[in-house]
Amino acid sequence: MLAIWSDVTPEQETDYLHWLTREHTAERVGIPGFEAVRVFRADLPEVCRYLILYDLAAPSVLTSPAYLARLNAPTPWSQRIMPTLQNFARGGGWVRTVRGTGGGAHLLPLRLGGPSDAAEPLLGDLAEEDRICAVRLLEVDREGSGVPTNEKALRSGDASFPGLLLIEATGSAALQRALSRHQPAIAAISGDGEGATVYTAVFSLRKAELEMKAADSLM
Question: Source organism's superkingdom (predicted)?
């Protein structure tokens, strides 16, 4: 999995979403090893914050020639968008553990402050909470995630994190209840920065959809 955060201004938000949904995510999912993408927006009244989650076939996709070629040749639209992104953070690697099935429209992503194995004991308890669909634990490949590229050079001050805990639910209230019930344990593993913010799904794309679209265009 690859997780990417960024903030945009309210004035930039429509252009940013058009870039994501009309070019950028399709470009990424079209790369070998990228299987699907989901985009979430933070439930924050005064901040336009987005989280992009890509499903990868393997962590090695982060340093694959096809992906690095795209990162080193950003499109004109990407060249315009990248320097405007604020509070950018990026990390990809292994999905170590999954409890539950599928995904929810509401997500609580928690950046970890240390090794991901410290969060393992919490996963089962969280997955048993009412209306929680799934809990996933991501361990970040810091070296693979930090490769210098031309696209990265367009931004400044990228943040990183050692791991990520993703809690998905059918409603935001379920996430708030789970957070409240397990607050001490969550606080013990959380890192600084993003904090406990609930996100809502706004867009998704699977590789199969791109392949169907390409096949239709040939008919």
Answer: Bacteria
